[in-house]
Amino acid sequence: MITKIRGFKDILPGEVALWQHIEKTAADLFEDFGFRQIRVPLMERTELFARSIGEETDIVEKEMYTFVDRNEELLTLRPEATASIVRAYIEHKLYNTEPVQKLYTIGPMFRRERPQKGRYRQFYQIDAEVFGVDSPLVDAQVIFMLSTLFSRLKVADIHAHINSLGCARCRPGFKQSLLELLESKSEMLCPDCKRRSRANPLRVLDCKAEGCRQAMTDAPSIVDHLCSDCREHFQAVQKSLRDLGVEFVIDKRLVRGLDYYTRTTFEIQTTLLGAQNAVAGGGRYDGLVKALGGPDQPAIGFAVGFDRLAEVVSLQAADFVHPPHVFIAALGPEAQVRAARWVCNLAVDGIRAEMDFSDRSLKSQMKRADKSGAEYVLIVGEQEIAQNAAMLRNMTTHGQESVPLSQLPENLKSMIILR
RNA sequence: GUGGGUGUAGCUCAGUUGGCAGAGCACCGGGUUGUGGCCCCGGUUGUCGAGGGUUCAAGCCCCUUCACUCACCCCA
């Protein structure tokens, strides 16, 4: 047997209905907020991700699906969507017609990590980005939109965490004082954090090891080191969130793993997913557009982990099955032929009709009809054909009535549509 | 990449000290002519994850390997 590759998954028909429901809810909501859908390639030049996500990050260093194309170009299956959207924004000069662009996209991403609950090597994200606005009101609006998405999907157990990472002016100073502290306490740190001290010092703040926690008790807080602009910005985000009635907590340990983030970062967490508690995350990335060769435009965006969201939403156990409107039990070759024709006639008018092509006993066809969940069963056999009238049985009321064959399937359509 | 757990029927799982591979559910058929659900009767379903070893004999013991899963790292 040939099986799917590790960390990949099939989304079976029963699940697809749920996925479409989530997709539609998100798309409708985002469109109401003025976002427009963009579709970008699944593959890009490796350089795009290396430059935007950061050469030193785990994603770029060891988690990307990268290969050499026949013309010796290095290509990568996208590990996230933001870089591609920024590339498209620049490449098509979208800022020329309208600098403020609100874009969203939905699709698969690829990261070669060890799979676990809520984490796949091909995973799906709903991604939204706003270009060209640096107002803190937009930060709050984006978080509000995200929290509305969760309430529309009836996901209760979620918490918004926010933080600020400062900007190119104030972050270096903070990083420096943090580095000095890490240097002085380096013997207390776990091996991972000794490594992190170099690669990503902010991460040490988030370590769970006892020694590291102690070493970090008097660590400087990013929020205290923000420059006045960043501090005002962060204050304004909080004020606006309160205005909008969005509950949140300030999480000083919320340090995102991608290099491009500046100022506001946020995450939506849930306790329903085990260790993978983040179901959405994002933040501001004011320097990225320029760094990738575009104009100096600010931007903010987020990604929703679709697989994780689907898992949480499915816990609310909605019923997404679509039973046929009518099941046709056809007995004998002549009835089978007619039934097959009706099924097609009904389908083009949007009425789902199902039949049993094996011409089995009425009893077994009734069993199948029952299992299909169809409300009506149309029974057609030699007798009915001889009498020019089929039996229409209502499976819930158990009532049966005779329907002249000459009026089928038009009659059936009106009867089913009426009820 | 590191560590733990689990692999037996379509699904959920039993399987004793090594001795003919099992149950429930599902599926199929029947319970007097062509009427579903509930009930009753009967039937089908297996590379015991794969490969090797020990043994008269392996689902069970040993080695190797793969997959799934949870956690770490990291992240949506």
If you had to describe this structure to a student in words, what would you say it looks like?
It is elongated and about 95 Å long. Helix 1 packs antiparallel against helix 6 and helix 6 (136-152) packs parallel to helix 10 (228-244). The protein has helices at 13-32, 46-53, 58-62, 82-91, 94-97, 136-152, 171-184, 191-199, 210-215, 228-244, 288-291, 306-314, 333-348, 362-372, 382-387, 410-418, and strands spanning 36-37, 43-45, 65-68, 74-77, 101-110, 122-131, 158-164, 249-250, 262-270, 278-284, 299-305, 326-330, 353-355, 376-380, 389-394, 400-404. The protein folds into 2 domains: 13-170 and 226-314, Bira Bifunctional Protein, Domain 2 (BirA Bifunctional Protein, domain 2), CATH 3.30.930; 326-418, Anticodon-binding domain (Rossmann fold). The chain is an alpha+beta fold and 419 residues long. A hairpin with a 5-residue loop joins strand 3 and strand 4. Strands 1-5-6-11-10-9-7-8 form an 8-stranded mixed beta sheet. Strands 13-12-14-15-16 form a 5-stranded mixed beta sheet, with helices on both faces. A 3-stranded antiparallel beta sheet has the order 2-4-3. The longest helix has 20 residues, at 13-32. The protein has 16 helices and 16 strands. The mean pLDDT is 89.
Notable characteristics:
single chain; 419 residues; Rossmann fold; 2 domains; five-stranded mixed sheet; 16 helices; 39% helix; RNA-binding
